[in-house]
Amino acid sequence: MSVATMRFKTLLQREWMQHRWGWLLVMFAPLVITLVTLPFGGVQLGPNEGVNAEISAVMLGKASKLMALVWGISTMAVLSLSLLAMSFQVSGLARRDVQDRSLEFWMSLPGSHSEHLGATLLAHCLLVPLAALFAGAVSGLVIAAGVTVKVLGFAGLAEVQWGSVVQLLLPGLVRLVAGLPLFLLWLLPALLVLMVASAWLKRWGVAAVALAGVLLANLPATRGPVRDWLDGHAQGASQAFFFGNPSQVREAAGSVRVDQMDLPQIWHLVGTDLVTQLGNLASVQFLSGAVIAAACFALLIYKRKHMT
């Protein structure tokens, strides 16, 4: 392992040591809350015992769908919470080493400013969301099993066809794992703009960015180009995150209902969509954002060199 790799690994370990408890709290809070609250309350399926028995029989036949639905929602909830926490936290990272008075120490060590910033961005903007996705999948399984037992009893859990559930959710999980880095690449210009503003304006940085965005999006001279660019980037990010083009889904389904697509059709849709999203990285819309991100990264390095 090279010296540069060891330095970068050390910087990543620093992020883990400093933020691990906050990351773990966000990732596993939904699981803890669900396990604490699930035993309380009841589920009333119908107005009387006869109707309850009939509804229970129908629901038992749909135990696998209930399991898959709750599992998927729980996974997405954990990932969404992690992304939300990251978006709030990342703006303050630009001045962290000044605030905790560790800048002189880190500058005395071998390594460039770009390595420090790169490790920070990699940890917070990619590795943690990916870890949250897998943590959500694990905790979502526990939550889904608990909800299934709560609604249908252990008989319902025994009726779950695990092979079908995994086959149903696996394409979506693969699409999320592959799409999350693409989504964060689209999001990177906005995150770096917030970091630059916070580096120069400190606590007023986020407010200044919000105010500037509102003004540029509403002034007659800039309203059209700014809104078009923001809409295009938001659309690119949403499509990179997950299936964002309904026409593509309908085309892949053909004459079959979307919820009745077989596995080969679903996997073909996942592959086709990923190829499309990779192609979008060569678009003018994405490249313009990449230029903004590169400029912001250079400004952060300059500011870090001159921080006191």
Task: Explain what this protein looks like in three dimensions.
By secondary structure, the protein is mostly helical. Helices cover 82% and strands 0% of the residues. The chain is built from twelve helices and no strands. It has helices at 3-37, 49-61, 63-89, 96-99, 103-108, 113-159, 162-201, 205-218, 223-241, 246-253, 263-280, 284-305. It starts with a helix and ends with a helix. Mean pLDDT is 82; it is low at 44-58.
What is this structure's SSE topology?
Elements: H1 3-37, H2 49-61, H3 63-89, H4 96-99, H5 103-108, H6 113-159, H7 162-201, H8 205-218, H9 223-241, H10 246-253, H11 263-280, H12 284-305
Helix pairs in contact: 1-3, 1-6, 2-6, 3-6, 3-7, 6-7, 7-8, 7-9, 7-11, 7-12, 8-9, 10-11
